[in-house]
Inverse folding.
């Protein structure tokens, strides 16, 4: 599939926006104003691209890391930052924190147990299949949670029933502090796709164009009812598992090497070469993103706390069919 | 209403089929739901043909996926019914079952998200299946915020409550005791629903109140008959649903009798008994004439041998002893 210029520019703008938001979350996590549990996705920013390829009525599950999915899907920075600060104006009313939800954008929530999204995605896939409208599910997972047995159950089931799911592996070779060599018996996770009778592919996860092209092929298959596929994106996270992680498990040199492979300037160069962007555009897009973040942080700071008297009111839906 | 006699198993199958006809978002999934299966909800061959393999979906052994896929499907507009066959098979999926209950409020009910699903399972109590094939995980489910819990004891209740559970916009666990599946009872030909949260006084009495659920209702009714011959008048209350719990019916009975025995097949320690007893003493302490008694599974793994099984699980004799203790 040829990626339209409009789409490439949208991906770029969202990469810059989510990166600005990620930096703010790193800062806010240290501020004491929000829960310190931010899992930065800096360095893995190209993951915006596959999400941008989805239809508005598709479903997507996200990992604990980064804010690429939420931004690429169209959530506002205000409702995200307010949620992380536990405010009533957050997308989950201050109840969820890292459990971001925006059902109208196909973001149905987050399982805090790693690997929890494999079977949840299966359910969304069953739903998409039964509705027959060509919807797909894009499920993101890291190499870390891919060692859960849930992966096996879900991959197997989805292939048996040809569910429209694209399994998106963010392989950053780290499960918290534990390296891939100690968590997986193989080095390329996409290899397992064969065993589940589905296509699998490994791409440079910091190359926006490569990621987008591979994903669009898999999305197309899934929409046609041809079943699931596995895409492995080789990438790297610059920051610790969570803010405050002393990162004794790796060297500064290793991080610096990967920072040279930063997906953002790489994509910028591509867009400059194609004549889609000017240097002035780049400066402007960065400034706009910074302004948007500042405004969202102000909104989060000034928003009201949730009302404790409403704590039971959320528990059960009072409706029925 | 025109009545006929059918078994609890048939009542359950009717409820599932009727709701699947009524609403195309309803589907059934589980390891043994196909025509050759042994699941409680397994529809007869013609029903399986009527709905096809997408709406009666047979699976492998994937309990966590059964439980969580239901949540994923429910959030995206479907109304799944998951059949675990045995309640013991919910154990590998506790994280996912709890998660179904936590999901809505855990996300602040964002955009009023809903998780309409039903987990059906059979309690295999007294089966001689040993420690992992005969448990009654009532407290496990009741403990989880956001879940509803239904324990039908008659064919009439099983059908009416299951239909309501399927239409409810929340996750509902529906536990049926294996001894009740083949029991026949009157069920109307016409459609009917039973609201969740309404207890039934199965037998009126004035001396002692027994609150029992599941198969223990049956045992307790036998106890009430036996004790009537000794001049002891026992009232038996079947809450039918623990979440929501009709505590008012229980309180009214205890205000009348002043004595309470709670019988449930789950482990006694931190069992459903303790929660009911607490709620009762909190509200009607001054009416209690004797300490509340509880009968349940001793805090040991359920053994295989018949002799050991009877030592561990509730029996008529143990319930009688408990009733008499409240009168001593």
């Amino acid at each position: 599939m040829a990626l339209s210029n409009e789409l490439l520019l949208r991906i770029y703008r969202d990469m810059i926006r989510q990166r600005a938001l990620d930096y703010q979350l790193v800062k806010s996590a240290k501020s004491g104003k929000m829960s310190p549990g931010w899992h930065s996705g800096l360095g893995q920013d190209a993951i915006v691209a596959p999400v941008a390829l989805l239809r508005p009525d598709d479903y997507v599950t996200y990992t604990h890391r980064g804010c690429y999915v939420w931004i690429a899907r169209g959530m506002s920075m205000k409702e995200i930052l307010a949620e992380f600060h536990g405010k009533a104006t957050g997308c989950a009313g201050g109840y969820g924190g890292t459990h971001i939800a925006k059902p109208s954008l196909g973001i149905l929530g987050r399982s805090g147990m790693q690997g929890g999204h494999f079977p949840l995605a299966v359910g969304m896939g069953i739903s998409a299949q039964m509705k027959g409208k060509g919807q797909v599910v894009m499920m993101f997972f890291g190499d870390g949670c891919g060692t859960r047995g849930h992966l096996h159950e879900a991959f197997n089931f989805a292939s048996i029933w040809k569910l429209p799911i694209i399994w998106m592996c963010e392989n950053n070779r780290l499960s918290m502090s534990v390296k891939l060599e100690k968590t997986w018996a193989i080095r390329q996770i996409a290899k397992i796709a064969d065993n589940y009778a589905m296509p699998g592919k490994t791409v440079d996860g910091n190359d926006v164009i490569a990621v987008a092209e591979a994903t669009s092929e898999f999305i197309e298959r899934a929409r046609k009812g041809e079943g699931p596929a596995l895409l492995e994106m080789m990438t790297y996270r610059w920051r610790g598992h969570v803010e405050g992680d002393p990162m004794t498990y790796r060297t500064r040199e290793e991080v610096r090497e990967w920072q040279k492979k930063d997906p953002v300037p790489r994509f910028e160069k591509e867009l400059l070469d194609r004549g889609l962007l000017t240097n002035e555009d780049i400066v402007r897009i960065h400034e706009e993103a910074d302004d948007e973040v500042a405004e969202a942080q102000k909104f989060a700071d000034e928003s009201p706390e949730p009302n404790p008297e409403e704590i039971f009111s959320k528990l059960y839906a009072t409706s029925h069919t | 209403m025109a009545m006929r006699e059918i078994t609890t198993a048939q009542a359950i199958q009717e409820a599932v089929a009727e709701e699947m006809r009524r609403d195309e978002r309803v589907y059934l999934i589980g390891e043994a739901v196909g025509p050759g299966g042994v699941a409680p909800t397994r529809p007869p061959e013609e029903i399986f043909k009527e709905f096809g393999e997408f709406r009666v979906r047979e699976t492998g052994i994937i309990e966590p996926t059964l439980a969580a896929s239901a949540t994923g499907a429910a959030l995206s507009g479907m109304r799944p019914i998951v059949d675990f066959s045995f309640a013991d098979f919910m154990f590998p999926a506790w994280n996912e079952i709890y998660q179904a209950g936590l999901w809505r409020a855990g996300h602040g009910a964002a955009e009023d998200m809903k998780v309409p699903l039903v987990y059906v399972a059979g309690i295999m109590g007294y089966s001689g299946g040993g420690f992992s094939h005969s448990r009654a995980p009532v407290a496990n489910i009741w403990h989880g915020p956001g879940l509803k819990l239904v324990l039908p004891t008659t064919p009439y209740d099983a059908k009416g409550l299951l239909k309501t559970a399927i239409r409810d916009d929340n996750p509902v666990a529906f536990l049926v005791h294996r001894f009740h599946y083949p029991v026949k009872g009157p069920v109307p030909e016409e459609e009917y629903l039973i609201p969740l949260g309404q207890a039934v006084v199965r037998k009126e009495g004035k001396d002692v109140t027994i609150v029992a659920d599941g198969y223990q209702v049956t045992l307790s009714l036998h106890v009430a008959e036996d004790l009537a011959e000794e001049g002891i008048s026992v009232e038996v209350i079947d809450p039918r649903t623990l979440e929501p719990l009709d505590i008012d019916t229980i309180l009214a009975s205890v205000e009348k009798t002043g004595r309470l025995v709670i019988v449930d097949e789950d482990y006694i320690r931190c069992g459903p008994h303790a929660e009911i007893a607490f709620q009762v003493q909190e509200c009607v302490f001054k009416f209690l004439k004797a300490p509340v008694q509880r009968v349940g599974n001793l805090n040991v793994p359920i053994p295989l041998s018949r002799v050991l099984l009877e030592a561990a699980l509730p029996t008529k004799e143990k319930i009688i002893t408990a009733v008499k203790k409240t009168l001593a």
